[in-house]
Design a protein that fits this description.
The structure holds 2 protein chains of 2 kinds. By secondary structure, chain A is α/β, with parallel strands linked by helices. Helix content of chain A is about 45%, strand content about 20%. In chain A, α1 (about 1-60) packs antiparallel against α2. The longest helix of chain A has about 60 residues, at about 1-60. The radius of gyration of chain A is 35 Å and the shape is flat. Chain B has helices spanning about 1-10, 15-35; strands at about 55-60, 65-70, 80-90, 90-100, 105-110, 115-120, 125-135, 145, 150, 160-165, 175-180, 190-195, 200-205, 210-220, 225-230, 240-245, 245-250, 255-265, 275-280, 290-295, 300-305, 310-320, 320, 325-330, 335, 340-345, 345-350, 355, 365-375, 380-385, 390-395, 405-410, 415-420, 425-430. In chain B, strands 17, 19, 20, 22, 23 and 24 form a 6-stranded mixed sheet that branches. In chain B, strands 9-15-14-11-12 form a 5-stranded mixed sheet, with no helix packed on it. In chain B, strands 30-29-32-33-34 form a 5-stranded antiparallel sheet, with no helix packed on it. Classes of the chains: A alpha/beta, B mainly beta. The interface between A and B is large, with 47 and 43 residues.
């Protein structure tokens, strides 16, 4: 009887135990699910916050964009548009597009009703309901009033503007930059001018102007130039610390050495001191130097929201780019380095548009500095520009490849350092001269012009990426003394370095290795008697313990 | 003990420990060794597809745009989606569509008229172009928008009517709009408006007659509600301004009566009731203005007479219109003022009984003002005595030496008495 009770007890205990386990398991499972739900909600919240943050970052700077909307001459209307009303309309119309941009980025449609009504509201609600978040950026609105009602409540105008649209996912490669012309009807409602009706008359991707540059091939072929880096203010410090005295001296040196061209870098956004660009061009003209300004230096984003400001920067430079010294405009330095991060289609579309803008507005030939000629961009360029720092043998192939586009070819950058302490590849001045001799001969054979990197060794300032080798790429030493390469530029032949020369350039490393070896030997020589002393001491200590 | 145990464990399983450590090192080093061998990213290249470029057919319907994709050879991969982007007037509109192996059609509900670039990509195939939807026929109701609810018939500029004939999708139709305008005199004016820049508009025709103007807009396929414009008469240009009671005794109790009647605008339309008329007078004692509304085509004003015999000029004004002058007369009240000196110490005068112009005696309490003046007609003091039963007994206080004359004023009458000679002269009586 007792046993059966014990059995029953143990059964009950097991049951209770199992139930407890089940309850714990269910509780744990529920906890896990809730936790997952919470984490996913938190993630969604942060994602949303990030999207809104991105949208605000895109929309906010656009409020201060210059030249985003201009009014052309009004057509005769029943009532003259009052200046204060024009300002209000400008404000409301711009805000409508800002709201649209925000809505495309975030999917938030709540603000659209403030600026759109009737058919236009239907359209913006549909378009912003796309599942794919997009960037839609507009600029260069040119408005021409068609009708302003006698009671001042209805305004009809024609608007011609440019826009860029692209998916947030750059890998989609669906960038479109176009000019759209549309009729718009605004109606005043609750103190605001709302877009009520609109209709597109034309919408075309910005096309390349048909331009011919007779003599360009010959001009490029005869280019003997330098990528200019100032000794006292190299790279990014050029414009903020620009010294016209130094520029004058350097350009005089270039002229004396027989150079015909100089390449300058203009960063985006415009740096402090860029207003002296005009003076630099005048100095170049004095020394009969052709100037190749390279725009968008240091810019790598290729973000469509930057386009309005980039075009605005260009428009401030148009007068200068039309200076007679400027023979070629380089839109971007080594754009193909940005293909991976910015997306190849994005870079191509972005630059193709800007090439057209520059060609149209300046009437000057345009190039883009590339390491490898890009088949899409090359079709739009007037000059194929190559950058090469590899062996002369590799250059030969690349020049041949570039020549297939049937456009003038410019070896826009090449160079060779003469730093004898560079490990594991030290160079002598003789090797630098020989490299130039071979490269210039290849350029001559390919009928390509060239621009060397650079005039001086750089003793001061920060180097890009902290690369010390950049300090030793000059044709002249930092104190202005000539290197051997100058002889090559003056038409002399340089012989290939012999075995003695090749070994001699390792003299510093040989000396260093010898010093290390001697140090090691010295260490061993000192360490051996010490070891003996230690052994002696340990033996002595052992004997004392035994005793 | 514990550490000893662990070291013993390690010692015992030295080989196992070494193997694990070795594997771990191998794994770690493989990360660094294999990384350089990671294949560089290749640009996407077109894979060999089982089908040649499919056929794309686009048709524009009332509900949107239908894109139909048909494989010319092979079948669509059901896993693959077509991506369509319309560059609409409101920005990019992107959609994805799964395709049936044998081909599919999908409707995009975009109905706005005008040009719309599109791009469609499917695998390595892509299509692009520009659609153009023309607006449809206008649908009922048309909604003519008047730029004002009312207008004066005499004004040069009439309000405008704006018509945007919309099709069923809210696009502004290009259908021309016929406009019928019915004036208050039932004359009908017709005009045809063409739609340009998304609107059509016209000034409304003028009418000589005030009243309602009806505006009816219609196209071949649609008609609209009747819009109404109130045509108001212009400002007063002429009127009949008169004083039915232009003369009254200067009692302060009697009244004049003024009336502005039959006001008309330039086009002889009756002026709307409620229009304000300003009556104003000029001259000493009557420098005033009063505003009265027109009621039933006239405006009346009744005002008490000035308590002194006087002649006044009054005008009426409404807007820029100013009437002719009306003359109001406050006539002398009394016909006869008998008097007699009763004594000289104190100086006592008895007036009356006074008879007014109606042949009655003035009310008891009517005041008689006596000004005591010097030789230079400067006022020395003033006495006021009431009449009682048409009479007054006036006892003068001792008068200063320079007092030389007395002036009695009563109901517009002035009586001048010289004190030394005790002669009485009526100085002036204003009719």
């Amino acid at each position: 009887m007792r046993k059966s009770f014990e059995l029953e007890d143990s059964k009950t205990e097991r049951l209770v135990k199992n139930l407890l386990w089940l309850a714990f398991s269910l509780f744990g499972l529920a906890g896990m699910l809730l936790g997952l739900l919470g984490i996913s909600n938190l993630y969604a919240y942060f994602q949303r916050a990030q999207t809104v943050d991105t949208a605000i970052n895109v929309v906010s700077p656009r409020k201060s964009e210059t030249g985003r909307l201009i009014w052309l001459e009004d057509k005769p209307t029943p009532r003259v548009l009052e200046p204060f009303m024009r300002d209000q309309i400008t404000n409301d119309y711009r805000r409508a597009y800002e709201e649209l941009t925000y809505s495309f980025l975030t999917g938030d449609q709540s603000g659209l009703k403030t600026y759109f009504s009737d058919a236009a509201l239907t359209d913006v609600l549909l378009a912003s309901s796309s599942l794919e978040r997009q960037k839609f950026i507009d600029w260069d609105h040119q408005l021409s009033v068609d009708f302003y009602s006698p009671d001042g409540s209805v305004l009809a105008f024609r608007d011609s503007y440019q826009y860029a649209q692209t998916s947030l996912d750059r890998s989609q490669g669906d960038l479109r930059i176009a000019r759209r012309t549309q009729d718009v009807v605004l109606k005043q409602d609750e103190g605001l001018w709302k877009i009520s009706q609109w209709r597109v008359h034309s919408d075309y991707a910005i096309s390349q102007p048909e331009m011919l540059f007779p003599g360009l091939a010959e001009t490029v072929r005869q280019m003997r130039g330098i990528n200019y880096i100032a000794r006292s203010s190299p790279f990014n410090e050029l414009w903020p610390k620009l010294s016209l005295v130094e520029i004058n001296a350097d350009f005089a040196t270039l002229s004396r050495l027989g150079f015909t061209s100089v390449r300058l870098f203009i960063p985006y956004p415009s740096p402090e001191g860029l207003e002296q660009f005009a003076d630099v061009l005048d100095i170049a003209q004095i020394y009969d130097l052709q100037v190749i300004p390279t725009l968008l230096d240091t810019y790598t984003c290729y973000c469509v929201e930057d386009l309005p400001n980039i075009v605005a920067q260009f428009s401030q430079l148009y007068d200068l780019l039309e200076h007679p010294s400027v023979v070629l405009i380089d839109l971007k330095n080594e754009a193909d380095r940005d293909f991976e991060n910015a997306g190849i289609q994005q870079v191509r579309g972005f630059l193709s548009y800007l090439i057209s803008v520059l060609q149209r507005e300046t009437g000057k030939p345009v190039t883009v500095g590339l390491i490898e000629p890009d088949p899409v961009l090359s079709k739009r360029l007037d000059v194929i520009s190559l950058h090469h720092y590899l062996s002369p043998e590799a250059l030969k192939e690349r020049l041949e490849s570039a020549s297939t586009y049937n456009k003038p070819v410019l070896l826009e950058e090449f160079g060779f350092h003469s730093w004898e302490l560079k490990l594991p590849d030290p160079h002598t001045e003789r090797e630098q001269a020989l490299y130039y001799q071979e490269v210039l001969e290849l350029a001559r054979q390919a009928k390509a012009g060239w621009l060397a990197w650079t005039l001086y060794d750089l003793a001061e300032g920060d180097m890009p990426g902290g690369r010390r080798v950049e300090r030793h790429l000059g044709l002249l030493k930092s104190d202005g003394q000539s290197k051997e390469v100058i002889r090559v530029l003056q038409g002399e032949q340089v012989n290939a370095p012999g075995l003695k020369d090749k070994l001699w350039k390792f003299r510093y490393f040989a000396a260093a290795a010898l010093a290390v070896l001697l140090s090691l030997l010295l260490f061993i020589w000192i360490f051996k008697p010490l070891k003996k002393l230690k052994n002696l001491l340990s033996r002595k200590t052992g004997k004392e313990t035994e005793h | 003990m514990r550490f000893t145990g662990i070291s013993a464990f390690v010692k015992k399983r030295k080989r196992l420990f070494l193997i694990v450590l070795g594997l771990e090192l191998l794994l770690l080093s493989s990360v660094f060794i294999l990384k350089p061998f990671k294949p560089t990213e290749q640009l996407l290249t077109a894979a060999a597809l089982p089908l040649v470029k499919p056929e794309l057919t686009i048709s524009i319907t009332d509900d949107g745009v239908v894109f139909s994709l048909t494989p010319l050879r092979g079948q669509f991969d059901p896993q693959e989606e077509a991506k369509l982007t319309l560059s609409t007037v409101a920005g990019p509109y992107t959609t994805w569509h799964k395709l049936e192996p044998q081909g599919s059609s999908f409707l995009v509900p975009y109905v706005r008229a005008g040009k719309t670039p599109y791009s469609l990509s499917l695998g390595t195939h892509s299509f692009s172009g520009t659609l153009e939807r023309l607006p449809g026929e206008a649908v009922t109701p048309l909604e003519p928008l008047l730029t004002a609810r009312s207008a004066r018939v005499t004004k040069e500029d009439m309000p405008a009517v704006i018509v945007q004939p919309l099709d069923q999708n809210g696009n502004v139709s290009t259908s021309s709009v016929r406009l019928r305008v019915i004036n208050p005199d039932k004359q009908v004016a017709q005009t045809e408006l063409s739609v340009t820049s998304l609107y059509s508009w016209a000034y409304l025709p003028r009418s000589r007659l005030a009243g309602k103007q009806y505006i009816i807009a219609e196209t071949d396929t649609a008609t609209g509600e009747r819009a109404e414009l109130d045509l108001l008469p212009g400002e007063v240009a002429r009127s009949d301004f008169q004083a039915p009671v232009a003369e009254a005794p200067a009692s302060g109790r009697d009244t004049w009566s003024l009336r502005l009647n039959l006001p008309r605008d330039l086009l002889v339309n009756r002026i709307t009731d409620g229009t304000n008329v300003l009556f104003y007078g000029e001259g000493e004692g009557l420098d005033f203005f009063v505003t009265r509304p027109l009621n039933q085509g006239e405006s009346n004003l009744v005002l008490p007479t000035y308590p002194q015999a006087e002649v006044f000029s009054l005008r009426a004004q409404s807007g820029n219109y100013i009437s002719d002058t009306v003359t109001l007369v406050a006539s002398a009240l009394t016909q006869d003022i008998p008097y007699s000196w009763l004594s000289t110490q104190p100086l006592t005068l008895e007036l009356g009984p006074v008879i007014d112009s109606y042949g009655a005696i003035p009310d008891t309490g009517s005041e008689v003002k006596i000004d005591i003046l010097d030789d230079n007609n400067e006022l020395i003091s003033q006495l006021i005595n009431p009449l009682s039963g048409g009479k007054a007994l006036i006892v003068f206080p001792p008068l200063p030496a320079e007092a030389s004359q007395l002036v009695f004023r009563m109901a517009g009458e002035l009586i001048h008495l010289d004190l030394p000679e005790m002669q009485v002269n009526v100085l002036e009586t204003v009719p």
